[in-house]
Amino acid sequence: MPNLVDDVGTGGRPLRVGMIGGGKGSFFAGVHRAAMRLAGRFEIVAGVFSSTPSVSREAGVALGVPGDRIYPTFTAMAAGEVRRSDGIDLCVIVTPNHLHYEPCRIFLEAGIPIVCDKPLVNASAEARELVSLADRHDTFAAVTYTYTGYPMVRDARSRVRDGEIGDVKFLYVEYLLEWLANDPSKIGKGGIWRGDPAKAGLTGALGDVGTHAFNILEFVSGMRCTAVNANLQNTVAGFGLDDTDVVQLKFGDDAQGLLWCSLAAPGHRNGLRFKIVGTKGTLEWCQEQPETLHLHRMAQADLIYRRGGSDMTEDGMSCVSLPAGNPEAYLEALAVLYADYAKALLSGRDWRKSLRVPLTDLREGLRGVVLSEVCLQSSTAQKWEAFPDA
Amino acid sequence: MPNLVDDVGTGGRPLRVGMIGGGKGSFFAGVHRAAMRLAGRFEIVAGVFSSTPSVSREAGVALGVPGDRIYPTFTAMAAGEVRRSDGIDLCVIVTPNHLHYEPCRIFLEAGIPIVCDKPLVNASAEARELVSLADRHDTFAAVTYTYTGYPMVRDARSRVRDGEIGDVKFLYVEYLLEWLANDPSKIGKGGIWRGDPAKAGLTGALGDVGTHAFNILEFVSGMRCTAVNANLQNTVAGFGLDDTDVVQLKFGDDAQGLLWCSLAAPGHRNGLRFKIVGTKGTLEWCQEQPETLHLHRMAQADLIYRRGGSDMTEDGMSCVSLPAGNPEAYLEALAVLYADYAKALLSGRDWRKSLRVPLTDLREGLRGVVLSEVCLQSSTAQKWEAFPDA
Amino acid sequence: MPNLVDDVGTGGRPLRVGMIGGGKGSFFAGVHRAAMRLAGRFEIVAGVFSSTPSVSREAGVALGVPGDRIYPTFTAMAAGEVRRSDGIDLCVIVTPNHLHYEPCRIFLEAGIPIVCDKPLVNASAEARELVSLADRHDTFAAVTYTYTGYPMVRDARSRVRDGEIGDVKFLYVEYLLEWLANDPSKIGKGGIWRGDPAKAGLTGALGDVGTHAFNILEFVSGMRCTAVNANLQNTVAGFGLDDTDVVQLKFGDDAQGLLWCSLAAPGHRNGLRFKIVGTKGTLEWCQEQPETLHLHRMAQADLIYRRGGSDMTEDGMSCVSLPAGNPEAYLEALAVLYADYAKALLSGRDWRKSLRVPLTDLREGLRGVVLSEVCLQSSTAQKWEAFPDA
Amino acid sequence: MPNLVDDVGTGGRPLRVGMIGGGKGSFFAGVHRAAMRLAGRFEIVAGVFSSTPSVSREAGVALGVPGDRIYPTFTAMAAGEVRRSDGIDLCVIVTPNHLHYEPCRIFLEAGIPIVCDKPLVNASAEARELVSLADRHDTFAAVTYTYTGYPMVRDARSRVRDGEIGDVKFLYVEYLLEWLANDPSKIGKGGIWRGDPAKAGLTGALGDVGTHAFNILEFVSGMRCTAVNANLQNTVAGFGLDDTDVVQLKFGDDAQGLLWCSLAAPGHRNGLRFKIVGTKGTLEWCQEQPETLHLHRMAQADLIYRRGGSDMTEDGMSCVSLPAGNPEAYLEALAVLYADYAKALLSGRDWRKSLRVPLTDLREGLRGVVLSEVCLQSSTAQKWEAFPDA
C-alpha cells in the first residue's frame, strides 16, 4: 500500500490537510509538502502558514488554498474546519519547536488528527497533556520520526524481532552533524534558535538530534530504555546549550546502550548510524547510505541486505516503492510515513491495526521530551537516572 | 530553481500534461507521475492511458482526469487538445518502446511539446523524422535519460568542462543488471518483450541499458563518439536478442572508450557506473550511490565530492533540493528533469537558453537508436564502424 | 630507515635477541618473530621459550638457538648473557600477561633492553617499579602497542600536530571483537585465561583491547587523559571479567572522549576504529583498512589519504616500505616498531632522539595498567575518577 | 604449511637460495627477499647481484653471502653451485625483463630450480625453449604471479570450482596504474625502460600489467583463453609502447571476457580488480582491498567473505597466517608463493602434488608472452586472433 509510485487503482479519496506553519523560508515545511505530494494521497486545503498574516496569505495562495481557509489563528482554524462538511482530515504542524504545544492542544481538543514534527514539545508535562488529549478519543496523532520510514530501518526492526541477531546485548547509536562547528557567528537564523533555551527547550544537540537517535534505537530493538547516565557538553562558545553529548543507556537488566551526538563534528552532514549487537550477530545501518543494512555475523561472511531484495522482511518490503537499484532516499522515507498516515486515517476506529509497524505517536514524542529532562538531570548530578516508564 | 521542495513563491502556473500510456500495471508511468508530483509543477488533465478503453478510463478516473479528456486515440487527443484554450502544455509518452513513434509523430505534428522515454524509437529513419518534425517549429521535445538528472552527474559534467581532470583520454562505462540471469522462464511479461525483436527493436541489452550508458558518457564528457567496435552476445537461451555486450568506442582521435553492459550479471540491480580518465585525474560515479562523486588524483588523496557540499559546481548545486546528508535518489533525479522541462516550457521561444545543461532532446534520442544500428553492424562484421554525426 | 624491503646498504650489524616465552603454540610469539624477520635486523640467539624445559628446548632448536643459550630460568639467562661479549642486545618478552613482570624486572635490573607485550603488567605498583628500573640507566624498554606502527596512524598523528583538524574537541575510539560472543564454552585455552582474574589482571576487555584503544587516542592526539567515567560490564556468563565496556574520557578542560570496547560483538574481527573530531575537521581510521585515513571536512569533499601518497606527512612516509597500491598490513606495522627498536638500539645514549615518533615505552605501559585500575574504581563507584599523571 | 608465523615445529631444513639481480636500487629484489624472510624457510647463499662487479659484491656482503659465492657470471655460478654438496636449492631471478632469458636457460640447463619474475621473457620462442628445458628433468620452475598468493584469490578460485557462481559466463578484469600519466619526463629510470621496446619487449602496459590481469582470470576461473580481439594504444607522448589497452577475450564457446589495463589512469596506484560473472552469482575482488571477496547474488544480500572466516574454502584457509581482522597484504601474498616453493622443493619428485593450487609455472609464463604476441597481432590487424594452446 505505501507504494509511492502506484497511483492508479490505489483507491481511497484524497485526504484534506491543514497546515500550521510553512510560510516562505520554512524549509522543512516544504519537505513535508514534497513528501505528501510523493505519497499522492493528500491535498492542502487550509492553514495558518505564519503568524504574519501577509506571509501566511502568500503561502496559502501559492499552495492553492482558498482564501477563506487561510486562517488568522489556530483557534479560528480549528473552529472553522470542524464546522465544515469537507473539513480537514489532518492537521500538520511544522512550526519551530517552541510553537508546537499550542496548535497540538487546540486541534486535539477539536478532535482533529495531527502530525507534529519532533521534538513534540519542550516539557514533559505538556507532552503528557497532549497524550491524554489524544487518548480521550483515540485521536490519530503522529510525531514525524522520519528515519523510521526508511525501508531498511523497518527491515532491521523485523530482523531483530525475528531473532536474527539473537538476544540484543548492546545498542549503539551516533548522530553527528557539523553545522555548529568552526564559527557559530556564521550560523543563520535557522541555527541560532536551536541554541536558545527559550525556543529550543532544555537541551540543544540532545533535543534536536539525540531524540531521533534514541527513538531509532527503541524502534528497531523494540526495547525500552530504563536508565541514562548523560554527559551533556557545550563546546562551542556562543551556543547556549549542549552541542556534544554522550549518554549511556540501560535497557532493563539485559542490555546496555550508548548514544553519542554532536552538532559540531566537521565533515558529518547528517550522520545517523546505529549498531545493534546481539548474541548471534550485529546489525548496522547508516542514514547517509539508507539502501543497505549490514549484518555482521560470527566468523562468517558479512551480509549486505539491500532494499528491494528477495530476502527482505515483509515489513521492509511492504514500504518499498522502487526496485532495488533505483535508489530511494530521504523524501521517500518521509513519504512512507505519510502513506502510513493516509492508510490509518482511512481505516476508521481500528486505525492502529491498519499499520504494520507501530505508529511513532505522541507517546514516542513524550519519550523524546523525557529524554532531555532525565539526561539534563543526570548530567548535572553526574550519575545514573531512571528513565520513567513514559 | 529546480529545487523540488521549495513550493512556495516559486511562481509560474502549473503545466497541463497529457499522458500516452500509463494504465494500471505500467510501472514506469507511475514513476513518471511520482516525479511530476515531486517536481510540483504539473497536473495530468488528459490522456490515452491504454489501447484498451476500459483500462484507459480506469486510469484516467483514478488520476482525476475529466471524462471528455480521456481520449480513444492519439489523433483524437491531439486534435481535441489543440482546439482547447486550456489544452495540454506537454504530452508525456510512456508506452513500450515499439509504441513511441506514432504518438511522438502525431503530437509533434500538432506542435505539442513531448517527453518520451528512451529508447526513442526502434529505427534511425523514424528518429530522424521526429527530429525534423521538432526542428520545424523548434518544439520542445525531450527524451528522459533519467540519470542526467542526478546532481552529481551534472557536477561531474561541470568538472570535466572546467578541466579538473585535464584532457579526457579514456571513458569507461558499465551497466550491469541481473534480471535475465539464471532462468529466463521466470521472467514476467515486463521482461519478455525486451527480448522480442518485434517490440524491443534491433538490440536487447544495448538498446535497453546500453543507450543510457552511452548517453551518460557523452553527457558528462561533452564528447561525441565517432566509431564503435561492438561485440553483441546472447548468452541466455530463450532470449531473442543480445544480453551481454562489449563496445569499444572512439571519441575522435584523442580519446578511447569502453562500454560493457549486461542483463545477466547476478547481484547487479541497476549497476550503472562510469569512470572518466583524464590526464590529471579520474572521475568515478555509480548510480547505486548517487550522492557522491569520486575524484582520483595523481599520487594524492582521493576526493569524495558530495551532493550539497560547498565545493559543488554551480550546475550541480542548481539542481539540489535537500541539504547534504539528507539523501536524494532516483525519483529526485527524474523530478529534476521534469523541473527542467517546466522551466523550459514556461520560458517561451528561448526555452533552450533557460536550461543550465543541454536538454537530452530528440537528437540524443536519435544517437541512442543509431548506437544500436551501428553496433549491430559492427558486431556482425566484427570490425570498427564509424558512428554517423547524428 | 624503517623501510622493510631495503635490505642492501642499510648498514648496521644485526641485533642479538633473547626471547622469553614463544614455545610451540604461542601464536603471538610467532608473530613477533615474523615481524623481526621482516624488519631484517634481528637474530634470535638465546631464550627461555617455555617454563617446560622440553618445550623450551624444542623451540630453541627450531629457531637455531645454540643449546647453551637455551636457559632454564630468566635469572640464569640474564646472568649468562651479561657475561658474554656477544650477549643479547634485546630481550623480547612474549609470555602471557601475568608472567610479564618477573622477566621485565630481571632483565632491566641486568641493564638489558626489553620489549614487552601489552598490557605491561597487572598492577600499577609493578609498572611503576619497572619504569623506575628503566629510568635508572635510561635503558631502552618498549611496550608493543602494535597499532602505532601503522603508517597511516603516524600520518594521523602528524596531521593532528600540524593543526589540520584545528583544536581537538572529541576523541572517539571503538575496539570490538567477537570471539567471546555466543558460546564461551567453545573458547579454547587461548581465550579462557583472558577471563581469569588471576592471569588477565583486574579487567578483561579493558585490559586486553581497551588499553590499545586508549593508547592510540593518546598517541594520535598527543593529549593526555585526565579523568574517566567507566562502566565495565560482564555480559557473557562464565567469563570472569568485564567483556563490554564504555568509558567516558576527559582530556583536560578542552576535550572529551569516549571509548567503547567489547569482546562479544559478533561480526567484528579486530575492529579498532578511531575518530578524532577537531574544530576544522575529523580524522577517522580503521585497523581493518589500515591503508587509508579519512579526513572529513566542513561542507567540503572528504579526503581519503593513502599510504605512500605524495601528500603523506614526513612521519608517515618515513615508515613506508611499499609503494601505494601494494598494501602493507599488520605484520608490517609490528615490523615498523621493530625497525624503530633497531634504530634506537644502534643509536647509543641518545636513542630517544633517533626516533621520529615517541617510543611507546614503559610509561605508556604504565598508563595502560592505570587505565584498568581507575576504570574499575570508577565503574564500581559509578562516578568520574581522576586519571593520575602517570 | 604456508603459515608464515608458525616458525616453531614446522620442520624442514632451510633452503639455499642463489639470486640473479638484486643489487642496490633494485626495489623488487628487496621485496622478494622480504617475502623470503617472511616465509622463513630460505637463506641467500650465492648470487650474481649485478653485472657491475662492485655493486654485486656490495649487495652480497650486505646480505651475508660468502665472498666465493658472489659470482662474476651466471655460467660461473651455475657451474660453481652444481659442484658443491651444499649448492643452492633454488635460483631466484629478479633482473629486468630483457635479462630473464639467459639466466633461466643456464640454470635450467644445470638442473637447478628457478623462480623468475613475470613476464618470463620477451618472445614466445624463448619461453617455449625454457618450458622444454624444465620439462626435460621436470625441474621446478615458477613464475611469480604474486597476486595468486592472496588467500582470497585462492578462495575465489575454489568457489568457482565448487560451482558457487554457477557456470562462468563473463570474466572482467581491469588493471589501472597512474605512474605514466601526466608527464612522462618525470618518470625515472625505473619507468623508462618499460617504454623501451628493446628492454620491455613487444608490449608496454600489456606485458607489464596486462599479463598479471590475464593470469588472474585464468587462475581463478580455471578456464583458458582461446581468442583475443585487442586494441593496444599509446596515449602518452614519448612512451614508446602501448600504455592503454582493451582486450576482448573468448574462453571457448561458453564464456566471454574483457581486459582493460592502463599505465596512465590518474588516481590508480595498483588497481587490479576482477569480476567473474556466473549464472548464479558474481565474484569480485580488488587487489587494494585484498582481505575481502564479494559475492553478488541474484536478488539477495551480497556476501562479503573475509580472509580467515570460518566459511573460507580449504584452499583459501590453507594459506592464511593471521586471524581475520589482523590484515595480511602484499608481502604476505608473495611469501605464500615462497612458502609453496619451499614445500614443493622439499617434496622431491612428486613436488607438483604437494601443492593445493597449481603452480604458476613456465607454461603460465609462456602464456603471458603469447598474450603480448597475439594481442599485438590482433591490434594491428584489428580483428580476432586465436590464442594458441600454449
Task: Give a written overview of the molecule.
4 copies of one chain form a homotetramer. With 390 residues, the first copy, chain A, is α/β, with parallel strands linked by helices. Chain A folds into 2 domains: 15-146, NAD(P)-binding Rossmann-like Domain (Rossmann fold, 3-Layer(aba) Sandwich); 150-322 and 361-381, Dihydrodipicolinate Reductase, domain 2 (2-Layer Sandwich). In chain A, 34% of the residues lie in helices and 21% in strands. Chain A is built from 12 helices and 14 strands. The first copy, chain A, has helices at residues 27-39, 53-62, 74-83, 101-109, 124-137, 151-161, 189-192, 197-200, 205-221, 314-317, 330-345, 362-381; strands spanning 15-20, 42-48, 90-93, 114-116, 141-143, 168-176, 227-233, 244-251, 255-262, 271-278, 281-286, 292-297, 302-306, 385-386. In chain A, the strands form 2 sheets. In chain A, strands 13-12-11-10-6-9-8-7-14 form a 9-stranded mixed beta sheet. Chain A has a 5-stranded parallel beta sheet with strand order 2-1-3-4-5, with helices on both faces. In chain A, a hairpin with a 2-residue loop joins strand 10 and strand 11 (281-286). In chain A, helix 5 runs antiparallel to helix 12. Chain A starts with 14 loop residues before the first strand and ends with a strand. The interface between A and B is large, with 47 and 46 residues. Strand 13 (302-306) of chain B pairs antiparallel with strand 13 (302-306) of chain C, so a sheet runs across the interface.
